[in-house]
Amino acid sequence: MVWHDFAAKRRSTVRGVPQRRRTYGAVAVTLLFTAPLALLVTGSLREPGLPPVVAPPLLPDDPGLTAYQQAITHGDLVRAAANSMLVAAVGVPLSLLVASLAGFALARLPRLVTGTVIALSVLAMMVPATALLLPRFVLFRTLHLTDTLVPLVAPALIATSPLYPLIYYLAFRAIPADSYDLCRLADLTPMQTWRRMALPQVQPVTAGLAALTFVLTWSNLLDPMVYLYDRAAFTLPLALRALAAMDPHNQPVFLAGAVLTTLPTLLVLGIAQRRFLHSYAPEGAS
After folding, report:
1. Domain 66-280 has CATH 1.10.3720.10
2. Which superkingdom does the taxonomy of this entry point to (predicted)?
3. Hey, which end of the chain has fewer CB within 10 Å, N or C?
């Protein structure tokens, strides 16, 4: 009895050491990414028009929200945020839908066909995105779609990136073959198998790709610079760039706009993280 108690205590101690190290590592990473955000927020609380400083103080002498009011008014951030939200609301679900269907099809195709498609996808990922800007611009201009939000949503029709279907492919391949056999015995069609059985089992993958796609879509600056000219169609990154060009020395206003632009991505990443923790938490854990 004494030996079992000693062994149990030793096992708990051994397990506790890596757990503490992981906790310390998580705290260190959190502080590493929180420090720039803290300086961003404190810098946005300074009075607009003050001379630029090398590093904003931890707490300004007279903090206020005047910079936020000017950023919203001068940068037209409300309209830009609506445009960005529209692009994300259409592009993210569409990209996940196409990627999940393509990944599911890869997981069910014969091995030879799957290998060929994967090789072509890897080759497609090696093509620089900037090399496609000119032909895409010519295509959208011929279709009279420039200066609209359509070119920003169009990449979702091909899953945004060849990487996304490959990630779904690996996730669907990890599902036990017995699950697919049961679906065939239940006389389910491939679409019903994808919707009822396969997709619910890869929810953590969907949550992670949704967060990644949202962040990339929300922070996309290159495509709006190429396709958008009318200020009414600007997305947030482009509006923020225009705001910085108005008065490069008015740091508080620009930092306030940067804070407002960053908040949605932090919210989405936080929701995705909670989804991951909930999906991989042991049963019975609260």
Report:
1. yes
2. Bacteria
3. C
Provide the pLDDT confidence category of residue 4 given band limits of 50, 70 and 90.
very low
Q: What is the pLDDT of residue 252?
A: 86
pLDDT at residue number 2: 38
pLDDT per position as a tens digit, 211-220: 999 999 999 9
State how far the alpha carbon of 224 is from the alpha carbons of 54, 129, 147, 238, in Å. Answer: 31, 14, 9, 7
| Domains of the chain, residue spans | 66-280
